[in-house]
Amino acid sequence: MEKFIVLLLVLVLPLAGCASLASKKTVDHLDKRVDKVETRQDAMEGQIDDTSSKSVYKASDKATQSGFAKTAMLSKGDTQKALKNAGYYHGAIDGKLGPVSRKAIREFQADHDLKVDGIAGTQTQKALKTYLD
Known about the structure:
By secondary structure, the protein is mainly α. It has 2 domains: 2-66; 76-131, Orthogonal Bundle (Muramoyl-pentapeptide Carboxypeptidase, domain 1), CATH 1.10.101. It has 6 helices and no strands. The protein has helices spanning 2-17, 24-57, 61-66, 76-85, 99-111, 122-128. The longest helix is centred in the N-terminal third of the chain and has 34 residues, at 24-57. It is elongated and about 45 Å long. The model is unreliable at 53-70 (pLDDT under 50).
């Protein structure tokens, strides 16, 4: 997934610098393509989240008793809500982790000495859970 994002950035960012030379029609076309890629990315992340949550809730009793069971992951909406409560996210709670949400996640991670990658992984979600009350 990270390779896909890097590849996307490598392909799209050089085109962004040419926007002043390109016609409005071309810029609009590129914006639509970026939106489609982000929608696909959100869909793939949703599939990953679904798979992760299924494995989280199917932890065996033995794993739970030994302390090795995973903790439940936050939904995308809860992630946005926690970021909003913490003062990092200012958009609508729509359950989609787009560019605004990822920027908020990166800022939150930087301020909380977490790995700054814009992804609400285990450590980031653990820190965010304190802001859900």
